[in-house]
Amino acid sequence: MRQVPAERVRRQILGVLRAWGMPDDLAATTAEAMVETDLMGIDSHGLSMLMMYESFREAGQLDLAARPRAVLDLPATALVDGGANLGHPVADFCMRLAVEKARASGIAAVGARNSHHFGAAGHYARIASSAGMIGMITSSARTVLMVPTRGTLPLLGANPIAFAAPALRNRPFVLDISTTTVAANKVKVYDLNGVPIPEGWVVDEAGRPVTDSAEAMRVIFQEPGGGVTPLGGAEATGGHKGYGLGVMVQVLSATLTGAAFGPARNPTRKPGDPDDVGHFFLAIDPRAFRPEGGFENDMDAMIDTLRATPPADPARPVLVGGDPEAAERERRLEGGIPVPPALEAHVRAICGRSGARYELSDD
User: Are 278 and 253 in contact (CB under 8 A)?
Assistant: First the structure.
């Protein structure tokens, strides 16, 4: 498998986005989010997303020149129209707007509608923590794939939640999870690598587990029944909690903002209609609650205590949210981002169709 330097991956993504007609600044924001996602080991939401984005573009769903704009702007809240562009520039705009408002008001919330897939939610939570803020992001999703607890048909998306909180000595605490057991795009990565998925991620229309990654992709994207399990899996192991969290995310991201709910919209959806994904962004300034530095000092103490927990396996120390991604980022900055042959072939083909230069290698 080829290990590609991050800068080459960035140039590749930029080249394709520009060839598709995305303005330079929006393309740079999108490429930054995608390559950072790959660097942190979230291969499901980085370079490999070009395949899906190409399909959006070919279907006429995207307006890659559109800029996010606030259609409702109040002192501590805003509603943003994403213009049917990719979600990365929309989410970047919204999180920065929430941070700006929170500086003045202590807490701020920004919602977005008429957006698309925005990659990894944690990337935008880190924008808040880098500014000294607590950040929380939720998003609805285009693909209906989560089977509700006790159900047989998928009715919700992966509906992710991300949360970041700053510290002083330590890296920020960053939580970035889907409310499903796994994101569908992670199943895609297993399929690209030709390896089976763990039992419990995907079930068929009869509730039977699916472990063949190619078959799992078919169940998720082609079959009317079956799909991905809620976070927690079966009801006996807490799947109803993941299902409930998924509904909560849908309420904040879509019901609150006026974005789409897939099962209600899909029967009347026409070819080329945008996904109308919704997002929700919350920024909290700790100084609105405590003297400056008090929150961050307590975050450091908590993180230190958690990491000092005696491990069950000395070779596997206790971590906190954000640690695995930070370690993987260091490894990949030095050794490159792994690009499996199947993905490399897809990217070459996309370059051929778009007219973009192939940047992942010199051959």
Answer: yes
Domains of the chain: 1-59+336-362 (1.10.1530.10), 68-181+232-308 (3.30.1370.60), 183-228 (3.30.60)
Compute the distance between CA of residue 188 and CA of residue 218 in angstroms, rounded to an integer.
Answer: 10
**Residue 2 pLDDT:** 92
Q: Which long-range contacts (CB under 8 A, 24 or more apart) does 314-323 make?
A: 320/173, 321/163, 321/173, 321/174, 321/175, 321/176, 322/122, 322/164, 322/171, 322/172, 322/173, 322/174, 322/175, 323/171
Say how many C-beta atoms besides its own lie within 10 A of residue 345's C-beta. 11
* pLDDT tens-digit readout, 100-125: 999 999 999 999 999 999 999 999 99
pLDDT-derived band at 80 (thresholds 50, 70, 90) equals very high
Q: Would you state the pLDDT for residue 188?
A: 87
Q: At what angle do helices 24-39 and 323-335 cross, to 10 degrees?
A: 100
33 CB neighbour count, 10 Å cutoff: 24
Contact 115, 277 (CB under 8 A): yes
Structure tokens at 285: 């300034």
Phi then psi for 339, rounded to 5 degrees?
-125, 105
